[in-house]
Amino acid sequence: MQINCPKCQKPIELMETISFHDDGDDETGNEKTQIAQGIFCPECGLIPFEYQASQKSREIVPPQEMVSHFRLMRPLGQGGFGVVWLAKDVDLDRLVALKMTFAQKSSVADLLYEAQNSAKLRHPNIVSVFETGQTEQGQAFIASEYIEGLNLKDVLSAGCPISETTNDLMVTICDALHHAHQVGIILRDVKPANIMIDHDGVPYVADFGLAKRVAEENESSKGLIVGTAHYMSPEQASGLDNQTDQRTDIYAVGVMLFQMLTGELPFRGNTQAVMFQKTHQDAPSPRLLRPSVPKDLETLCLKCLERDPDKRYSSALILKEEVQRVQQRKPILARPVAPYSRIDYRFC
Protein backbone atom coordinates (compact mmCIF):
# COMPACT_ATOMS: atom_id res chain seq x y z
CA MET A 1 0.00 0.00 0.00
CA GLN A 2 1.63 3.23 -1.13
CA ILE A 3 1.31 6.68 0.41
CA ASN A 4 3.07 9.94 -0.31
CA CYS A 5 5.64 10.82 2.35
CA PRO A 6 4.14 13.78 4.30
CA LYS A 7 7.50 15.59 4.13
CA CYS A 8 9.03 14.97 0.69
CA GLN A 9 5.93 13.53 -1.10
CA LYS A 10 7.98 10.57 -2.36
CA PRO A 11 5.80 7.43 -2.78
CA ILE A 12 6.67 4.82 -0.16
CA GLU A 13 5.24 1.44 0.81
CA LEU A 14 3.43 2.06 4.10
CA MET A 15 3.34 -1.47 5.49
CA GLU A 16 6.95 -2.19 4.55
CA THR A 17 8.32 1.01 6.13
CA ILE A 18 6.26 1.03 9.32
CA SER A 19 8.21 1.13 12.58
CA PHE A 20 7.04 -0.98 15.53
CA HIS A 21 8.06 -1.42 19.14
CA ASP A 22 7.35 -4.46 21.30
CA ASP A 23 5.36 -4.34 24.51
CA GLY A 24 7.37 -7.35 25.64
CA ASP A 25 6.39 -10.60 27.34
CA ASP A 26 4.08 -10.38 30.31
CA GLU A 27 4.56 -12.21 33.62
CA THR A 28 2.86 -15.34 32.31
CA GLY A 29 5.17 -15.56 29.32
CA ASN A 30 2.58 -14.54 26.76
CA GLU A 31 3.78 -13.65 23.30
CA LYS A 32 4.94 -10.13 22.48
CA THR A 33 2.58 -7.65 20.88
CA GLN A 34 3.67 -4.83 18.60
CA ILE A 35 2.44 -1.25 18.37
CA ALA A 36 3.09 0.96 15.37
CA GLN A 37 5.12 4.12 16.03
CA GLY A 38 5.52 5.70 12.60
CA ILE A 39 6.82 5.28 9.07
CA PHE A 40 10.36 5.32 7.75
CA CYS A 41 11.05 7.30 4.59
CA PRO A 42 14.40 6.63 2.85
CA GLU A 43 14.73 10.38 2.30
CA CYS A 44 13.36 11.83 5.59
CA GLY A 45 13.97 9.08 8.16
CA LEU A 46 11.47 8.10 10.86
CA ILE A 47 8.25 10.14 10.86
CA PRO A 48 6.14 9.39 13.97
CA PHE A 49 2.39 9.02 13.72
CA GLU A 50 0.48 12.03 14.95
CA TYR A 51 -2.27 10.02 16.60
CA GLN A 52 -2.10 9.23 20.32
CA ALA A 53 -4.88 6.68 20.64
CA SER A 54 -2.59 3.67 21.05
CA GLN A 55 -0.49 5.39 23.71
CA LYS A 56 -3.54 6.44 25.73
CA SER A 57 -5.08 3.01 25.42
CA ARG A 58 -1.97 1.34 26.84
CA GLU A 59 -2.45 3.34 30.03
CA ILE A 60 -5.69 1.48 30.78
CA VAL A 61 -5.21 -1.22 33.41
CA PRO A 62 -7.11 -4.41 32.51
CA PRO A 63 -10.04 -4.89 34.91
CA GLN A 64 -9.38 -8.61 34.84
CA GLU A 65 -7.15 -11.01 32.97
CA MET A 66 -9.95 -13.20 31.65
CA VAL A 67 -13.36 -12.25 30.25
CA SER A 68 -15.32 -15.44 29.76
CA HIS A 69 -12.94 -17.60 27.68
CA PHE A 70 -11.02 -14.59 26.35
CA ARG A 71 -7.61 -13.58 27.72
CA LEU A 72 -7.10 -9.82 27.53
CA MET A 73 -3.79 -8.85 25.95
CA ARG A 74 -3.78 -5.10 25.32
CA PRO A 75 -6.23 -2.29 24.46
CA LEU A 76 -6.64 -1.50 20.79
CA GLY A 77 -8.65 1.67 21.30
CA GLN A 78 -11.27 3.36 23.42
CA GLY A 79 -14.19 5.75 23.12
CA GLY A 80 -17.25 6.89 24.99
CA PHE A 81 -18.75 3.39 24.81
CA GLY A 82 -15.82 1.53 26.38
CA VAL A 83 -12.65 -0.25 25.27
CA VAL A 84 -11.73 -2.61 22.43
CA TRP A 85 -9.14 -5.17 23.53
CA LEU A 86 -6.90 -7.47 21.62
CA ALA A 87 -7.80 -10.78 23.24
CA LYS A 88 -7.15 -14.45 22.74
CA ASP A 89 -9.96 -16.97 22.52
CA VAL A 90 -8.41 -19.75 24.61
CA ASP A 91 -11.03 -22.27 23.46
CA LEU A 92 -10.42 -21.80 19.72
CA ASP A 93 -6.82 -20.51 19.99
CA ARG A 94 -7.39 -17.38 17.90
CA LEU A 95 -7.01 -13.63 18.33
CA VAL A 96 -10.16 -11.48 18.47
CA ALA A 97 -11.09 -7.84 18.95
CA LEU A 98 -13.12 -7.80 22.16
CA LYS A 99 -15.38 -4.77 22.53
CA MET A 100 -16.41 -4.10 26.13
CA THR A 101 -18.65 -1.36 27.51
CA PHE A 102 -17.94 0.96 30.42
CA ALA A 103 -21.54 0.89 31.63
CA GLN A 104 -23.18 -2.36 32.61
CA LYS A 105 -26.95 -2.37 32.27
CA SER A 106 -28.02 0.34 29.84
CA SER A 107 -25.40 -0.53 27.24
CA VAL A 108 -26.09 -4.25 27.04
CA ALA A 109 -29.09 -3.83 24.75
CA ASP A 110 -27.17 -1.40 22.52
CA LEU A 111 -24.24 -3.76 22.17
CA LEU A 112 -26.48 -6.70 21.40
CA TYR A 113 -28.28 -4.59 18.78
CA GLU A 114 -24.91 -3.81 17.19
CA ALA A 115 -24.06 -7.51 17.14
CA GLN A 116 -27.39 -8.34 15.51
CA ASN A 117 -26.74 -5.76 12.80
CA SER A 118 -23.25 -7.12 12.15
CA ALA A 119 -24.45 -10.72 12.12
CA LYS A 120 -26.75 -9.93 9.17
CA LEU A 121 -23.74 -9.06 7.02
CA ARG A 122 -21.72 -11.55 5.01
CA HIS A 123 -19.01 -9.75 3.07
CA PRO A 124 -15.26 -10.43 2.84
CA ASN A 125 -14.49 -6.77 3.65
CA ILE A 126 -16.81 -6.35 6.63
CA VAL A 127 -15.40 -7.36 10.00
CA SER A 128 -17.21 -10.50 11.22
CA VAL A 129 -18.80 -10.85 14.65
CA PHE A 130 -18.06 -14.18 16.33
CA GLU A 131 -20.10 -14.04 19.53
CA THR A 132 -21.60 -11.85 22.25
CA GLY A 133 -21.90 -12.29 25.98
CA GLN A 134 -21.95 -10.80 29.45
CA THR A 135 -19.59 -11.02 32.38
CA GLU A 136 -20.81 -11.99 35.85
CA GLN A 137 -20.83 -8.27 36.65
CA GLY A 138 -23.26 -7.60 33.77
CA GLN A 139 -20.71 -6.04 31.43
CA ALA A 140 -21.52 -6.77 27.78
CA PHE A 141 -18.93 -7.70 25.17
CA ILE A 142 -18.69 -8.52 21.47
CA ALA A 143 -15.93 -10.72 20.08
CA SER A 144 -15.11 -9.79 16.48
CA GLU A 145 -12.61 -10.73 13.82
CA TYR A 146 -9.22 -9.15 14.54
CA ILE A 147 -7.63 -7.40 11.56
CA GLU A 148 -3.91 -7.06 12.13
CA GLY A 149 -2.62 -3.79 10.72
CA LEU A 150 -3.73 -0.16 10.97
CA ASN A 151 -6.92 1.76 10.53
CA LEU A 152 -7.38 4.39 7.85
CA LYS A 153 -7.05 7.15 10.45
CA ASP A 154 -3.53 5.92 11.21
CA VAL A 155 -2.70 5.75 7.51
CA LEU A 156 -3.90 9.31 6.90
CA SER A 157 -1.83 10.57 9.83
CA ALA A 158 1.22 9.23 7.98
CA GLY A 159 0.37 10.79 4.61
CA CYS A 160 -2.03 10.80 1.66
CA PRO A 161 -2.35 7.54 -0.26
CA ILE A 162 -1.28 7.76 -3.89
CA SER A 163 -4.17 7.99 -6.39
CA GLU A 164 -4.02 4.29 -7.32
CA THR A 165 -4.23 3.26 -3.66
CA THR A 166 -7.07 5.70 -3.03
CA ASN A 167 -9.01 4.22 -5.95
CA ASP A 168 -8.47 0.66 -4.71
CA LEU A 169 -9.61 1.56 -1.18
CA MET A 170 -12.69 3.37 -2.48
CA VAL A 171 -13.79 0.45 -4.67
CA THR A 172 -13.54 -2.06 -1.82
CA ILE A 173 -15.13 0.19 0.81
CA CYS A 174 -18.02 1.07 -1.50
CA ASP A 175 -18.59 -2.59 -2.31
CA ALA A 176 -18.80 -3.43 1.40
CA LEU A 177 -21.15 -0.52 2.10
CA HIS A 178 -23.37 -1.50 -0.82
CA HIS A 179 -23.75 -4.96 0.71
CA ALA A 180 -24.80 -3.44 4.06
CA HIS A 181 -27.27 -1.12 2.34
CA GLN A 182 -28.71 -4.02 0.34
CA VAL A 183 -29.70 -5.81 3.56
CA GLY A 184 -31.20 -2.61 4.93
CA ILE A 185 -28.42 -1.41 7.25
CA ILE A 186 -27.17 2.19 7.25
CA LEU A 187 -23.94 2.65 9.22
CA ARG A 188 -24.24 6.39 10.07
CA ASP A 189 -20.67 6.44 11.42
CA VAL A 190 -18.43 5.74 8.44
CA LYS A 191 -15.03 7.26 9.26
CA PRO A 192 -11.32 6.42 8.92
CA ALA A 193 -11.09 5.00 12.46
CA ASN A 194 -13.68 2.39 11.46
CA ILE A 195 -11.85 1.26 8.32
CA MET A 196 -9.23 -1.35 9.18
CA ILE A 197 -6.32 -1.91 6.78
CA ASP A 198 -4.45 -5.21 6.92
CA HIS A 199 -0.78 -5.74 6.05
CA ASP A 200 -1.68 -6.34 2.40
CA GLY A 201 -3.43 -2.96 2.20
CA VAL A 202 -6.91 -4.53 2.11
CA PRO A 203 -9.63 -2.47 3.88
CA TYR A 204 -12.37 -3.81 6.16
CA VAL A 205 -15.40 -1.90 7.42
CA ALA A 206 -15.86 -2.23 11.18
CA ASP A 207 -17.99 -0.95 14.07
CA PHE A 208 -21.73 -0.94 13.56
CA GLY A 209 -22.49 0.71 16.90
CA LEU A 210 -24.59 3.49 15.33
CA ALA A 211 -26.04 1.46 12.47
CA LYS A 212 -29.78 1.48 11.96
CA ARG A 213 -32.12 -0.74 10.06
CA VAL A 214 -34.06 1.12 7.42
CA ALA A 215 -37.24 -0.75 8.31
CA GLU A 216 -37.11 0.66 11.84
CA GLU A 217 -37.09 4.31 10.73
CA ASN A 218 -39.73 6.33 12.56
CA GLU A 219 -40.63 9.80 13.79
CA SER A 220 -39.17 9.15 17.25
CA SER A 221 -35.69 9.66 15.83
CA LYS A 222 -36.47 13.20 14.64
CA GLY A 223 -34.18 15.67 16.38
CA LEU A 224 -31.68 12.97 17.32
CA ILE A 225 -28.07 13.71 16.39
CA VAL A 226 -25.82 10.65 16.10
CA GLY A 227 -22.43 10.15 14.51
CA THR A 228 -19.02 11.83 14.44
CA ALA A 229 -19.22 15.57 13.67
CA HIS A 230 -16.64 15.73 10.86
CA TYR A 231 -18.20 12.78 9.01
CA MET A 232 -21.88 13.51 9.63
CA SER A 233 -24.06 14.33 6.68
CA PRO A 234 -25.90 17.68 6.77
CA GLU A 235 -29.16 15.87 7.51
CA GLN A 236 -27.55 14.15 10.50
CA ALA A 237 -26.11 17.45 11.72
CA SER A 238 -29.58 19.00 11.43
CA GLY A 239 -31.08 16.36 13.70
CA LEU A 240 -33.05 14.75 10.87
CA ASP A 241 -31.95 11.24 11.72
CA ASN A 242 -35.30 9.86 10.65
CA GLN A 243 -34.45 11.01 7.10
CA THR A 244 -31.06 9.33 6.87
CA ASP A 245 -30.56 6.62 4.27
CA GLN A 246 -27.66 5.17 2.27
CA ARG A 247 -26.83 8.66 0.99
CA THR A 248 -25.80 9.57 4.54
CA ASP A 249 -23.03 6.98 4.31
CA ILE A 250 -22.14 8.28 0.83
CA TYR A 251 -21.52 11.72 2.35
CA ALA A 252 -19.18 10.22 4.96
CA VAL A 253 -17.30 8.37 2.22
CA GLY A 254 -16.93 11.72 0.49
CA VAL A 255 -15.30 13.19 3.60
CA MET A 256 -12.86 10.27 3.72
CA LEU A 257 -12.10 10.68 0.02
CA PHE A 258 -11.46 14.40 0.60
CA GLN A 259 -8.94 13.46 3.30
CA MET A 260 -7.24 10.86 1.12
CA LEU A 261 -6.90 13.37 -1.70
CA THR A 262 -5.77 16.41 0.33
CA GLY A 263 -4.71 15.32 3.82
CA GLU A 264 -7.30 17.75 5.22
CA LEU A 265 -10.94 17.70 6.32
CA PRO A 266 -13.44 19.69 4.22
CA PHE A 267 -14.63 21.62 7.29
CA ARG A 268 -12.53 22.59 10.29
CA GLY A 269 -13.07 24.07 13.73
CA ASN A 270 -14.87 22.96 16.88
CA THR A 271 -17.92 20.72 16.74
CA GLN A 272 -20.39 23.61 16.65
CA ALA A 273 -18.52 25.34 13.82
CA VAL A 274 -18.26 22.14 11.76
CA MET A 275 -21.98 21.39 12.19
CA PHE A 276 -22.89 24.92 11.10
CA GLN A 277 -20.58 24.84 8.07
CA LYS A 278 -21.83 21.58 6.66
CA THR A 279 -25.48 22.64 6.97
CA HIS A 280 -24.96 26.13 5.51
CA GLN A 281 -21.90 25.93 3.23
CA ASP A 282 -20.74 23.77 0.34
CA ALA A 283 -17.53 21.81 0.70
CA PRO A 284 -14.42 23.39 -0.84
CA SER A 285 -12.76 22.00 -3.95
CA PRO A 286 -9.93 19.55 -3.16
CA ARG A 287 -7.77 20.99 -5.95
CA LEU A 288 -7.64 24.34 -4.10
CA LEU A 289 -5.68 22.56 -1.39
CA ARG A 290 -3.75 20.20 -3.62
CA PRO A 291 -3.62 21.07 -7.33
CA SER A 292 -2.27 17.61 -8.21
CA VAL A 293 -5.59 15.95 -7.28
CA PRO A 294 -7.02 14.30 -10.43
CA LYS A 295 -9.98 16.28 -11.75
CA ASP A 296 -12.28 13.27 -11.98
CA LEU A 297 -11.63 12.28 -8.36
CA GLU A 298 -12.39 15.85 -7.29
CA THR A 299 -15.69 15.67 -9.18
CA LEU A 300 -16.64 12.38 -7.52
CA CYS A 301 -15.68 13.73 -4.09
CA LEU A 302 -17.75 16.90 -4.43
CA LYS A 303 -20.78 14.97 -5.64
CA CYS A 304 -20.58 12.82 -2.50
CA LEU A 305 -20.38 16.00 -0.40
CA GLU A 306 -23.46 17.70 -1.80
CA ARG A 307 -25.61 19.16 0.99
CA ASP A 308 -28.77 18.00 -0.77
CA PRO A 309 -28.96 14.18 -0.56
CA ASP A 310 -30.77 14.09 -3.92
CA LYS A 311 -27.65 15.50 -5.60
CA ARG A 312 -25.33 12.83 -4.18
CA TYR A 313 -24.78 9.38 -5.61
CA SER A 314 -27.88 7.37 -4.84
CA SER A 315 -25.96 4.22 -3.97
CA ALA A 316 -22.50 3.01 -3.03
CA LEU A 317 -22.60 0.72 -6.08
CA ILE A 318 -22.92 3.68 -8.46
CA LEU A 319 -20.02 5.43 -6.70
CA LYS A 320 -17.94 2.26 -6.92
CA GLU A 321 -18.61 2.05 -10.66
CA GLU A 322 -17.56 5.67 -11.09
CA VAL A 323 -14.24 5.00 -9.34
CA GLN A 324 -13.74 1.98 -11.55
CA ARG A 325 -14.18 4.23 -14.58
CA VAL A 326 -11.37 6.39 -13.19
CA GLN A 327 -9.21 3.27 -12.79
CA GLN A 328 -9.95 2.23 -16.37
CA ARG A 329 -9.36 5.79 -17.67
CA LYS A 330 -12.91 5.98 -18.95
CA PRO A 331 -15.13 9.09 -18.76
CA ILE A 332 -17.07 9.39 -15.51
CA LEU A 333 -20.79 10.13 -15.56
CA ALA A 334 -20.76 12.93 -12.98
CA ARG A 335 -20.31 16.49 -14.17
CA PRO A 336 -18.04 18.99 -12.38
CA VAL A 337 -19.78 21.32 -9.93
CA ALA A 338 -19.84 24.99 -10.96
CA PRO A 339 -16.83 26.74 -9.34
CA TYR A 340 -18.83 29.76 -8.18
CA SER A 341 -20.75 27.55 -5.74
CA ARG A 342 -17.60 26.58 -3.87
CA ILE A 343 -15.89 28.55 -1.11
CA ASP A 344 -12.16 29.18 -1.25
CA TYR A 345 -10.75 27.06 1.58
CA ARG A 346 -7.49 28.99 1.58
CA PHE A 347 -9.13 32.04 3.11
CA CYS A 348 -11.26 30.29 5.76
Structure characterization notes:
A hairpin with a 3-residue loop joins strand 4 and strand 5 (45-48). The protein has 348 residues and is of the alpha+beta class. Residues 24-33, 51-59, 215-225 and 344-348 have low confidence and may be disordered. The chain is globular, with a radius of gyration of 20 Å. It has three domains: 1-48, no CATH class; 52-146, Phosphorylase Kinase, domain 1; 149-347, Transferase(Phosphotransferase) domain 1 (Transferase(Phosphotransferase), domain 1). Helix 5 (163-182) packs antiparallel against helix 11 (316-327) and helix 7 (246-262) runs antiparallel to helix 10. The strands form five sheets. A six-stranded antiparallel sheet has the order 6-7-8-9-11-10. Strands 3-4-5 form a three-stranded antiparallel sheet. It has a three-stranded antiparallel sheet with strand order 12-14-15. The protein has eleven helices and 16 strands.
